[in-house]
Backbone:
């Protein structure tokens, strides 16, 4: 399992750092189901597998529409 920094997450999903913060912290965005980060020491990291799974879910949602 690989862990991603916020910079890597932003590059992978194409969102700004501020938008990733909104997706993970703002209750108004909770319905998007964006993966929550994990704190390891002073670092905040995301599971690459969870990010990839979220992307696949978004593509499936698009296809269902």
Residues:
């Amino acid at each position: 399992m690989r862990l991603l920094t916020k910079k890597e997450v932003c590059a992978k999903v194409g969102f700004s750092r501020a938008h990733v913060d909104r997706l993970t912290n703002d209750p108004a965005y909770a319905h998007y189901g964006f993966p929550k980060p994990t704190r390891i020491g002073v670092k905040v990291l995301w599971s690459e597998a969870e990010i990839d799974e979220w992307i696949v879910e978004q593509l499936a949602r698009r296809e269902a529409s």
Observations:
- The CA atoms of residues 25 and 36 lie 9 Å apart.
